[in-house]
Each structure stands twice: as C-alpha cells, then as structure tokens.
Amino acid sequence: MRPLNNSSILILLLISNFAFAQVVPNYAKEKRWASQVEDGLMDGDVVWLNANKRQFMSLYTPSETNTKRAALIVHGLGVHPDWAQVIQPLRVALSEKGWHTLSIQMPVLANDKDAMQYIPLLTQADNRIKAAVDYLQQQGLNADAIVSHSLGSLMSAHYLDNQQHSFKYFIAIGMPDLAVKYLGKIRIPMLDLYGVDDIEPVLKSIKERAQASKKNKHYTQKRVDADHFFNDKDTLLIDEVGTWLK
C-alpha cells in the first residue's frame, strides 16, 4: 500500500471534520418524548423554550415556598426531562424543599449512539442551558443550582467551563470520564455523587475527576450505596442532594 501524502491526509481530515460537524439532534425522537411526557405529566407545567432555531420542551415545577432560588435539572443520555429514574424524583422533590425547578430537554440521538457521539452536540447543549437560564431570570428567579445526571453532567460541566454563568452550585450525579477535561476551571461548590455499583465510565474516572477538581476548594466527591440510576433508592438520592444544597 502506498503511504498517504500530505494532500491525501488533508482531504481525509476535512472529510472527518465535516462528518463530525454534521451531527444533529434527533428532533423526531424529541417530539415523541414531548408527546409522551405531556400526556402523562402529573407535576409541573410544560414550558417551550427556543435555542439553535428550534423549540425544545422543559418542565417547570414551582416551589411550595416563597423563594427565588431555582434549580436547573439536566437529564442523561437519550431520555427526557421527566425521566422516571433520577430526574423526575429530583425535579419534584426539590420543589418541596424550597427550590423552583426547570427540567430541560437536552439534545438526543438515536438509541444506538453512545456518549462519545454526543460530543459534537455540546455547543447546542450549552445554548439550551442558556435559554433555560434566561427563562428563569425572566420569571424573576435566580438560576442558583444546576443538577445533572450522567451525560447531563458532561453537558453541564462543558457549559460551566465555557460560559459565563451565575450558578452557585453544581451537582453531578454519575458523572462519566468524558467530563474530566471540563472540570479544571469550575470553582463553585460541586457535589460529585456516584454509586458503588455505578457504570464503568464513572467508576474508572473517580481519581481523575478529583484530580481535575483539585483547585476547587468547594469540591466534594461522595460514594453512596446505589447504582447509576438509583434504582429503588429515590429517598437516598433526594436526601443526599437536598442535604448538600442546604
């Protein structure tokens, strides 16, 4: 086989970069999720927001107390803002603990796509988080906390690393290894919460996440008796998050 010359290598790089840039969210899947969520919504209200020249769904759940504190809830890979595991329990429970919550639909891909294939969508994810923050501020609320799960923790870390923001607290539940590179500049109080039976990308990066956050004096890493989705451990999850936010 003949070795590639510089021109051939350049062409391959351009083709690769073009393919990378062409990754777009699965809007049809988002539409199906939205229909499903609206039909079964028990708590909160649907609010449609705009980013990247598209509408996306969010769920606003007002606090039961007189407060201006709001928490943004960011779900994980391929799901929706009322996902029964982690997301729905938190968005409702935090509203009972003195927080308005806004759970937002993040970009999703087809079911067979893994976390690495979401990397080209991080900028779009940033824009959705920014739109959610703007909405909360328009309601006279303070976007004080960002509470995220799994891939949502990667998206949230990317936002905090790359955007000016007003968040005071960052909770990352089941944060994967891909987020390590975005932790170095984060200085706000952060809870890195994971389970003893978590998934491999979380467990294999425990030390790396702590090392990347060594300059954050307000970084806390905590392991609890749970799996990645806190199956049958909603009370544990709510207690850990609620207590830390106090």
Can you offer a commentary on this structure?
Helix content is 37%, strand content 23%. The chain is built from eight helices and eight strands; from the N terminus they run ααβββαβαβαββααβα. Strands 1-2-4-3-5-6-7-8 form an eight-stranded mixed beta sheet, sandwiched between helices. Helix 3 crosses helix 8. The protein is globular and about 40 Å long.
Write the SSE topology:
Elements (H helix, E strand, L loop, with lengths): L5 H16 L5 H14 L4 E7 L2 E8 L7 E6 L12 H10 L3 E5 L17 H17 L3 E8 L1 H12 L6 E5 L16 E8 L2 H4 L2 H7 L6 E9 L6 H12 L1
Parallel strand pairs: 3-4, 3-5, 5-6, 6-7, 7-8
Antiparallel strand pairs: 1-2, 2-4
InterPro entries: AB_hydrolase_fold, DUF3530
Keywords: Signal
Pfam families: DUF3530
Keyword list:
37% helix; Rossmann fold; alpha/beta; 8 strands; DUF3530 domain-containing protein; 8-stranded mixed sheet; 246 residues
Kindly state the number of beta strands: 8
Structural category is alpha/beta
The chain-level mean pLDDT equals 92
CATH architecture: 3-Layer(aba) Sandwich
Considering DSSP H and I runs of 4 or more, what fraction of the residues is helical? 25-40%
**Radius of gyration, CA atoms, in whole angstroms:** 19 Å
* CATH topology term: Rossmann fold
Order of helices and strands: HHEEEHEHEHEEHHEH
- Principal-axes shape call: globular
Note poorly predicted spans.
8-20
Could you provide a short overview of the structure?
Keywords: Signal. The chain is 37% helix and 23% strand.
